[in-house]
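Below is a filled-in request sheet from our internal design queue. Each sheet records the structural input a requester submitted and the sequence that came back. We keep these sheets so that new team members can see what a complete request looks like end to end.

REQUESTER: design group, bay 2
PRIORITY: normal
MODE: inverse folding
CHAIN LENGTH: 309
BACKBONE (tokenized):
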């Protein structure tokens, strides 16, 4: 029986990142057909937004080098009608590749810190924003939805704690460019709930409406759910998560898996917050994916529910 908490949203949209953020960090390269089946099963479990892949340089992320094969496989696949399937694009070349395949939704990915901008994009923060600007403008002209990620919003493995003003400045630039949603990335999972509240307050004070914000927590220190609850209490209604807790970033030391979608759904179900996700089908999907990868899911909820069977 749910126990709602007054003031929380009635509904949360889960932005599933397992096929992209999850699989980009796996040592094994997963066959394209298995990736497509993963996306199909995630949609079958009720997820309405599934980030599928990245049109980045194939040498930088070899795990996702099959984007040109995956997107056409998903096109017209049973069960994917009406499901949003965003992809990452870092630059014009990436956008050209995505547009050529009829992709309808893209994300650029900025960094709040110089060190990570350099490691992940081979650019300074300013140079990377200059790289994104024509991408966002052109994507909007094509009628695409454009998300802007901001990585290292709380701490950075090279620079330590990240001042909120630095994050607000990058977020404002992405909104000015035309991003319709921003996802605040705790890439290495160091955030704590008070810090989340402080950043969200600074962002709304700085003119970034909370309705445009999503949160993207990695669970390195076991704080992802607590941080999510803090964000919901501040009015955030979009939460990124990765089925089975897969994930990380190959260019950020100490980044582990994302918040597991199952752990998130368990909490939201308990709060009576609607997500449209069937936890049983989702858990079965992650157990199936864990078999494909040959290792158990790090999600506590997946493990608990699997042991019950
Ligand atoms: P670069 O080496 O500076 O690229 O990399 P360049 O612009 O100098 O171009 C070099 C060559 O790459 C050229 O080819 C380009 O055409 C080619 P050449 O003329 O030498 O033959 N090239 C491309 N090829 C295919 N697709 C492309 C592309 N772009 C250039 N899109 C670049 C710059 C941005 C490309 C590179 O740094 C890159 O691909 N980085 C991606 C890194 C990445 O994907 N990281 C993981 C995602 S971010 C993340 O996980 C965090 C997140 O989850 C949120 C969070 O947790 O915080 C989102
Ligand atoms: Mg991430």
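RETURNED SEQUENCE:
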């Amino acid at each position: 029986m749910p126990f709602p908490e007054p003031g929380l949203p009635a509904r949360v949209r889960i932005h599933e990142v397992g096929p992209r953020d999850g699989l980009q960090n796996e040592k094994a390269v997963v066959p394209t057909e298995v990736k497509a089946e993963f996306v199909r099963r995630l949609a079958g479990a009720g997820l309405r937004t599934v980030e599928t892949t990245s049109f980045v340089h194939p040498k930088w992320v070899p795990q996702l080098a099959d984007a040109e094969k995956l997107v056409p496989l998903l096109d017209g696949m049973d069960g994917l009608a009406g499901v949003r399937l965003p992809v990452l694009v870092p630059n014009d070349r990436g956008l050209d590749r995505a547009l050529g395949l009829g992709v309808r939704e893209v994300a650029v990915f900025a960094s709040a810190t110089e060190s990570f901008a350099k490691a992940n994009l081979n650019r300074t923060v300013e140079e990377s924003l200059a790289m994104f600007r024509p991408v966002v403008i052109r994507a909007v002209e094509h009628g695409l939805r454009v998300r802007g990620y901001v990585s290292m919003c709380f701490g950075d493995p090279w620079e330590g704690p990240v001042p909120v003003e630095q994050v607000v400045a990058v977020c404002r630039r992405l909104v000015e460019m035309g991003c319709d949603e921003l996802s605040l990335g705790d890439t290495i999972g160091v955030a704590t709930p008070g810090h989340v509240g402080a950043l969200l307050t600074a962002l709304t004070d700085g003119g970034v409406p909370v309705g445009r914000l999503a949160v993207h927590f990695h669970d390195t220190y076991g704080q992802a759910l607590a941080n999510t609850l803090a964000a919901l209490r501040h009015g955030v209604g979009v939460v990124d998560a990765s089925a089975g807790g897969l994930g990380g970033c190959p260019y950020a030391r100490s980044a582990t898996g994302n918040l597991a979608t199952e752990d998130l759904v368990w909490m939201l179900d308990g709060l009576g917050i609607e997500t449209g996700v069937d936890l049983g089908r989702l858990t079965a999907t992650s157990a199936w994916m864990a078999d494909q990868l040959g290792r158990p899911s790090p999600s506590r909820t997946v493990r608990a529910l699997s042991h019950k069977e």
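SHEET NOTES:
- The pocket of magnesium ion (ligand 2) is lined by residues 21, 185, 187, 216, 249, 258 (CB under 6 Å).
- The two ends are 21 Å apart (CA to CA).
FILED BY: M.R.
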